[in-house]
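Morning!

This is the sequence you dropped in the shared folder:
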Amino acid sequence: MSKQANSKFVVAKFGGTSVRDSIAIKNCAEIVKSLPEVKVVVVSATSQTTNHLEGVADCIRMNQKEDALAAYNKIVKRHIGICEGLSGDSLLRGFIDELDFEGSRIIEEAVELGKGVSPMIMDQLYSLGERFSSSLFSFALQSSLGESYRVKYLDAREFVKTDSSFGKAVPQMDKLNEKVGSLFAPFLDEDLEELRLVAVTQGFIGSDDQGRTTTLGREGSDFSAALLASSLDAESLTIWSDVEGVLTTDPRVYPDAKTIPELSYKDATKIAKLGAKVLFPETLAPVQKKNIPVYVGSSLKPNGKGTWIKKGPSSPSFFSIILKKGFMFNEAPLEGVGETSVFFIEEDSLFSELSNISEEVLRKLKRAYQFSFVSSFSEGEECLTFSSLSKLFGEGESPLIPDESEYNGALRFLVLEKECQDVLKMLHKI
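The structure's back. Tokens below.
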């Protein structure tokens, strides 16, 4: 990772894939060790843990207490395994046992007392993921740093104060700033020479005025880190995931996707809102207000490529293709709409929407991707249009199927799955 000049301290956030197991956690601890400017670390739940907690919630909804407890026990065992991979410290194991007891109590009360899975209960349950992972990370970091360092575990619910909108809580910045100022002051004391202090806390969770656990919404750990960076006037925020920065498209679909070196706050926010998975849409607002740059990099390749998001234009003029997997099909011609009408169903709403489609139409069903093509050009440059993109593929041979002419400043179109690779290859040549 290239460093910003004159950096005083940095807030670092590690995503779920970065802390997926003991080896990954040790690797992230080494990254923090190598960057003395990192004073605050924000941790997501280990990979897939929140999804598994959703499975526990599904069992509660069906009043299946034993199944819910069994599903939760699998989550606990996984984290015990990580603990053992980190040396199995008795204090750490004791903390995990406490979370095990807390989660089991939440499940039993929700079923036996008929509380169900209200948003408030869900937030209590979901908070366990980040609390597991941050405790494991704290121990690993202390082990990595050694005796001349002190790692302090902080419960985010002590300082991330929110309203009571369970599931999508809104931070109360005045209260958050007040709490953060007193709790984090020791970690930012530049006069400390003999002892380096590092704070480790959770993303995603907070608490309301009554002390009840709240969450900031899925992928809210990035948002938590940005709130902290803003409140502490950090020099920068680093977000570590399993990809090398913000890429031109999904590398799982197109392995030759390129890293975008620099993005403006505006362009980064746009592609996040359009569905790019590397950034949570709300993340950039707090840091943009204070002009705090954000670095997005890979914890697997900490010295590899990455993306800086900051004030100013994107560099070079960039494009990004956000892919949404779904289904495209042609229905019977509609009056005044040419020969066929194209419809698109996103994957997450597939089953609910298919019930309204006739059997005849379903027989025509074809897999497709929805593309959102976002470009940024310097003043005087000609912006790309759907027509100009289509011409890249030859007269009358374009595989691009118009969706909407423009959406939030991005061109939208559909591409059949079998043609997706060819389209991405061609678009990467421009």
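Headline: The chain has 13 helices and 15 strands.

More detail when I'm at my desk.
O.
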